Amino acid sequence: MQPHQNLPFKVGQLAELKTFETGFRGAWFRCKINRISKKKGHIQHYLKFYDFPDEKVQWTKLYQKQEKERDIHLMVRPSFPSIYCESQMQDPLAASDVIAVVDDAWKVGDLVDWWTDGCYWCGRITHLLGEDKVKIKLHDPPVGEGQCYEASCKDLRPSLDWSPERGWTLPISSVPFFSLFYFHCMNYIVIFSYWIQFVFTNCTFALYRGTQWVNFFSERKTNELDMGNPPT
């Protein structure tokens, strides 16, 4: 991501903040922008945590790098849009603000944010445990913390991504690079194994047929010698 010069953030605006601190990776904290400053070319926001009023107000760089990564990440985004169930919406286009419309029932595989301990944790639903409970798995490190938990459906919201260029969008499935690399490697290994098996099978068959022909001509030659006929 390249730094964006015309960000829509204003003093007094409610927003959400993420962090790369171990133990809180993959979590979004609700906050309020108290001040905006630019120092040494870096845009900083003076943020007060909405759900942690006793937490010290701090300056946060808007763009940061995760450890061992070259790409920069936008750490702040606008307040999450209003959420409506599909059955509640009469005319979604009539709403003046951005809204998120979700199905009436969660499904296995849905990407969700789980509200617990004063913040929203990003993960995926892995099991349905009844009408009002699910099991979720937080995204694997370094994107998230990776544990599995039981969660109440009332504490879930759909996961969404936000960027200055596209606004709110559905997220691309969060699969770590090494998982994709492993998947593709396994595909190539399977294909290579089939190729080896094909070559081995055909070579074995050719060797078997060659042995049959050798035995055939050897027996023919032996029979001709036994009959006193000159070999051909």
TrEMBL record:
The lineage of its organism: Eukaryota, Viridiplantae, Streptophyta, Embryophyta, Tracheophyta. This is Agenet-like domain-containing protein. It holds the Pfam family Agenet. Residues 104-164 form the Agenet domain. InterPro entries: Agenet-like_dom (IPR008395), Agenet_dom_plant (IPR014002).
